[in-house]
Amino acid sequence: MAKGLICCNNCIYLDTTKKEFKDNGADNFRVGCGASDDGYTKFWLVGNRNKIELNYSGCSDFKNTIQVGTIFRFFTESNKYVCQYCGKIDDKYLIWNQTFRTFKLVEKEWFKLHRKQIQVKCERTTVHGCMVTTKEEKQSFRKKLAKHRKEVYLKQCQK
Question: Which pTM does this prediction carry?
Fold first, then answer.
């Protein structure tokens, strides 16, 4: 796989643990995509060629970097943590661990090193009765929350 290639295998939103199989009995399936409206890739994969197809397929939602405010799950061998990316401080990235309610500063390469353990939460428009919350409104709220958390962290560091 070429480094820096814009393909699904390099996308931060790819979730290969989530699969949807076609009903026709063939070995066709789609994998999870946190950027897609329905939560899956726009195309079907065929049998054992899925690794190759993910190297050459992509969409307009491709992102190889995480955005401020993004909620993601971080998996270890024994646990799952819900985290939020809160922005950069100097050359490091600030992560809020919602599970433990703690901050962590990580090196720039941390996301690349742990790519297989990270699952980005998919944002979708939701309807509750007559109230509609759009994907964009959720992203805006999460971005403001992340900026606020970053300010809280910086104030804690000054004490």
Answer: 0.70
